[in-house]
Amino acid sequence: MSRRPFVVHVAKLRRVPGTRWHEVRRGKIEGLACSGSAVPEGSEVEADVTLESVAGAVSVVGSVSTCWTGECRRCLGPASGTVRVQVLEHYTEDGDGSDTYPLVGDDVDLEPMVYDAVVLELPQAPLCSEDCKGLCPVCGADHNHENCSCDRAVEDTRWAVLRMLRVADADTDVGTEADTDTEADVGTEADTDTDADTGTDGDTDTDADTDTDADTDEVTSDG
């Protein structure tokens, strides 16, 4: 097999716009990986595509497929699967790999397209199976293979800070209500004292008036 299995010579294809041909290319591509999974070293990737000559470019339509392996996000065991992604790309002489891929002379190099398609499709958080039961959060037992008697009602410490803030807010609200009640009580006592003082002053004035009347009566009698 060619050392560059994904390079397709398209000189004959480009002579007549609208010409198509089918290509199936397989080969190894290094570095096909993401944070959660990767294509195993030595595994081949397949590009099953149709190339078509268009004005000033070559379009590529088809699919890219390969296998992948990773670590199950629930049970931490091995996970594996197959990536199959549809592609529709264009190769132009001024292609930079962003909007279109570069058409170098009469060669279409499918490898950059295949690489991008696979990496974007690899699972970031794979599962060994959709019904994976995961690990016990207490003892670490794999519930896919064994059961345990652990109490799973374990507090999620990620919310601890939020709960502390809520408790602090609740304490602040209670303290505010207590201060309000105290101020209300003080105000009530002040009003009561004021009323009492007013009553006392009233009594004093009355006593004074009574004494004055008594003195007047004595003067009249003496006269």
Which key phrases capture this entry?
223 residues, alpha+beta
Blueprint of the fold:
Elements: E1 7-9, H1 11-14, E2 20-28, E3 37-38, E4 44-54, E5 57-71, E6 78-92, E7 101-104, E8 107-109, H2 111-121, H3 160-222
Parallel strand pairs: 6-7
Antiparallel strand pairs: 1-8, 2-4, 3-5, 4-5, 5-6, 7-8
Walk me through what this model shows:
- With 223 residues, the chain is of the alpha+beta class.
- The chain has two domains: 7-121, no CATH class; 159-222.
- Helix content is 35%, strand content 28%.
- The chain has helices spanning 11-14, 111-121, 160-222; strands spanning 7-9, 20-28, 37-38, 44-54, 57-71, 78-92, 101-104, 107-109.
- Strands 1, 2, 3, 4, 5, 6, 7 and 8 form an eight-stranded mixed beta sheet that branches.
Number of distinct beta strands: 8
- Relative helix content: 25-40%
**Poorly predicted parts:** 218-223
Q: Using the CA coordinates, give the radius of gyration.
A: 45 Å
- Strand percentage lies at 25-35%
How would you state the average pLDDT, rounded? 82
Please give the alpha-carbon distance between the first and last residues: 151 Å
What order do the helices and strands follow? EHEEEEEEEHH
* Shape assignment: elongated
Specify the structural class.
alpha+beta
Number of helices: 3
How many domains make up the coordinates? 2
Largest sheet: 8 strands, mixed
